[in-house]
Amino acid sequence: MAKQISELKLGILGGGQLGRMLIQQAINYNVTTLVLDPDPDAPCKHISNYFENGSITDFDTVYNFGKKADIITIEIEKVNIEALEQLEKEGKKVFPQSRVIRLIQDKGVQKQFFKENDIPTSPFQIVNTKEDMENCNIPFPYILKLRKDGYDGKGVMKINSAADLDKAFDAPCIVEKLVDFEKEVAVIVARNANGDVKTFPMVEMEFNPEANLVEFLISPSTFAESLQQKAENIAKNIASAMNITGILAVEMFVCRDGELLVNEVAPRPHNSGHQTIEGNYVSQFEQHLRSIYNLPLGNTGSITNAIMINLLGEKGFDGVAKYENLEKVLSIDGIYVHLYGKKYTKPFRKMGHVTIVDIDREKAIEKARFVQKTLKVIA
Amino acid sequence: MAKQISELKLGILGGGQLGRMLIQQAINYNVTTLVLDPDPDAPCKHISNYFENGSITDFDTVYNFGKKADIITIEIEKVNIEALEQLEKEGKKVFPQSRVIRLIQDKGVQKQFFKENDIPTSPFQIVNTKEDMENCNIPFPYILKLRKDGYDGKGVMKINSAADLDKAFDAPCIVEKLVDFEKEVAVIVARNANGDVKTFPMVEMEFNPEANLVEFLISPSTFAESLQQKAENIAKNIASAMNITGILAVEMFVCRDGELLVNEVAPRPHNSGHQTIEGNYVSQFEQHLRSIYNLPLGNTGSITNAIMINLLGEKGFDGVAKYENLEKVLSIDGIYVHLYGKKYTKPFRKMGHVTIVDIDREKAIEKARFVQKTLKVIA
Q1: Does B326 contact A at CB distance below 8 Å?
Q2: CB contacts, 8 Å: A18 with chain B
Q3: Do B336 and A28 touch (CB under 8 A)?
Q4: DSSP 8-state class, residue B301
């Protein structure tokens, strides 16, 4: 008999909400979980078999942590790649593979990869200086993105004209053509070591314009089946081209002309897949586990309409988090609250999410809007 | 604003699979969980905020543990009641209440309670000696049950004739009339401190005749709606008569004449409700939390057909558990594996369960039979 799941310890770099939801699933398979996080009170702290408080970007810390595990995965891309490469050399399984994380850590390399693999994406140019920006071939207004370390809407700005260049990032960036899109959508794809590939149905997203965070997500999408199929195929193509083991979230723009352009990818459980916990036969977290343990991939089909709302810290509140009107929200049918175990709130901090399900799509939306304006994270 | 869930620490007496699944749910509400269990490697050990290895039947241990919590609940009835009474006196919330646990700990008192509250149950007689048994009014063959400490089929025997009395339990027992039943069914009912009461749909059970454990459970039942309604009303009546806060599993016999007779009740999450995790809008674990934190009760409706199979340790195997054919089982759609984190298996030990869902009931049964004969817990 092959090695049992329970015999292969899982090391997770990052102990935030994504790790937390992954562990909630891993409990069902008796997985021994080891977590490394720089926050001594990280959301995974009390639910993992072993928690280490330390840097995920320091070579020695990551390397020594990784030695304790059999399979190493991530819940955030900003990790020490060299340590992961060394661990791979020594026979540890790192999923997603270090080369995939390296590729994705750098938005310039990521864009280049799309181009080389015929993955549709918006025109772009790599820039290193303000001079490069002034002289680039992309017309104003455009989007400027830091090549590295951007996340959750940070590291992205719109440059309307040369006058804006004063406040532009002073670091290696990519300039992207501004896309006139109708909707942002996402497809999560999973690939196990056997090379089996499965996508979740496409979902639609709405962003908080102020925080540039996903605020509202609806699954499944109501775009034409043909467009959804195209989006799923793009996701599969990326996963195959990358030879990734694990899950990959692919964010895309649906342009006004119906074209699909890949915006960004993330090689891990993603905010655009939280609704799969209740809305789909298998969740993104279960699917990620199945991928990295090389198990058969699960049925990604939608069970019903599912809407996901991020619970962001309210503006104006800093301190020990309180969840206002939780009872009101729980009195509605089909509401699933997921709090992330973060003691302190601050404006726009991701404190939890709520999934709302209903067989009637309009009712689901109505309930979601109610939750959105009712449940508040204050201090 | 009232006290937040996250401000009220939950103490759980018992750290087995029921506590484990309760905690998996409690994580979503940022509940701080404290667990007391005599097994230093109990299934809850690594997923609780605080784990204490100690006796749940010792006054001092339970009392001192309970002092650390705000709300105390149980996952097994055999706990020290006096300590819980003392904790209640000192203002701790104990749900289910100590008097409910006391009532249920003794099958004689439980039966008496049913009788006094017009809850239909089989005729019975309380016996203390073999002489009592010989002279009792219930004709052979009958069922003999220990009044205390029976669980999972232990503490129950069939007495066919006076000749069997030699091997009868030598302790206070109840003699129950043998019921000629068609099926064993169960209804889980929840009641919060506000007095709101909700039942889950009735489920049908099949028992392993050798181990006398639930082996196969199907939800929802296909008995006539009127019978199901009657079963739900019986469950509600018991919960209200007991004034219980928390959930209560009510096991009943459907007799060949269509009559319903209550067999036993358990004031906690129960094996007959595991399929609610995937099969119903709200799970028994979530509902128990909502009850004891006095939150609105959730929608108990069935989402689809759900079948639950207990994964019992195979006969002939003792040692470190291995799960044979897990991959084969995971290649089927709609399979949810829940392993309980127990390192060692032994014959008939509850090692996990699998829930199988399918919108086609016959297909669900077919898949469940396949899982039952395929997935084995060996050593």
Answers
A1: yes
A2: none
A3: yes
A4: -
